[in-house]
Amino acid sequence: MKKHRCGWCIGDDLYEAYHDQEWGKPVYDDATLFEFLILETFQAGLSWITILRKRENFRAAFDGFDYKKIAHYTEDKLNELQNNASIIRNKLKIKSAVTNAQNFIKIQEEFGSFSNYIWAFVNGKPIKNKVENYKEAPANTPISDAISKDLKKRGFKFVGSTVIYAHMQATGMVNDHEVDCFRYHEV
């Protein structure tokens, strides 16, 4: 019997695997939260499948998404990234990865972990929405507005409310699986 999935992923093996194994699953690990933050910031203005197809290229180019290394990237490394055709070569987004890594570490120092910080916005547990059709899911919410505003105040870049809401969906802070999707009750 075929599993019912959210409509947005159907028809692409990579998309379906991502949907089935990762999307909407609560993430409390700082390294993974940072990876999704980097990927979401690069996704701004592009489709998620574009980023997903380049994910392993990003992983290789950005030292496995190691925020401690990224926080110390030199101009030479930034130039190398800007010339790397296997990733999105947006100069401002590349520079923002460094700034965001530095600020990510500051949040860890202040809150004990980035996870403690970000999950506090939803009282530590996922918000379970009742999305009938993925096209009806919100692009942002008052919570993503608040997180975005706070991150910007802390110096983060490319963290608009829509980017943050996509991050919340990806990391399971909100469950926006369609109610008849097999993952809805699993996450």
UniProtKB/TrEMBL annotation:
<feature type="binding site">
    <location>
        <position position="19"/>
    </location>
    <ligand>
        <name>Zn(2+)</name>
    </ligand>
</feature>
<keyword id="KW-0227">DNA damage</keyword>
<dbReference type="Pfam" id="PF03352">
    <property type="entry name" value="Adenine_glyco"/>
</dbReference>
<feature type="binding site">
    <location>
        <position position="6"/>
    </location>
    <ligand>
        <name>Zn(2+)</name>
    </ligand>
</feature>
<dbReference type="GO" id="GO:0006284">
    <property type="term" value="P:base-excision repair"/>
</dbReference>
<keyword id="KW-0862">Zinc</keyword>
<dbReference type="GO" id="GO:0046872">
    <property type="term" value="F:metal ion binding"/>
</dbReference>
<feature type="binding site">
    <location>
        <position position="177"/>
    </location>
    <ligand>
        <name>Zn(2+)</name>
    </ligand>
</feature>
<keyword id="KW-0479">Metal-binding</keyword>
<dbReference type="InterPro" id="IPR011257">
    <property type="entry name" value="DNA_glycosylase"/>
</dbReference>
<dbReference type="InterPro" id="IPR005019">
    <property type="entry name" value="Adenine_glyco"/>
</dbReference>
<dbReference type="GO" id="GO:0008725">
    <property type="term" value="F:DNA-3-methyladenine glycosylase activity"/>
</dbReference>
<dbReference type="InterPro" id="IPR052891">
    <property type="entry name" value="DNA-3mA_glycosylase"/>
</dbReference>
<keyword id="KW-0378">Hydrolase</keyword>
<protein>
    <recommendedName>
        <fullName>DNA-3-methyladenine glycosylase I</fullName>
        <ecNumber>3.2.2.20</ecNumber>
    </recommendedName>
</protein>
<comment type="function">
    <text>Hydrolysis of the deoxyribose N-glycosidic bond to excise 3-methyladenine from the damaged DNA polymer formed by alkylation lesions.</text>
</comment>
<keyword id="KW-0234">DNA repair</keyword>
<feature type="binding site">
    <location>
        <position position="181"/>
    </location>
    <ligand>
        <name>Zn(2+)</name>
    </ligand>
</feature>
<dbReference type="InterPro" id="IPR004597">
    <property type="entry name" value="Tag"/>
</dbReference>
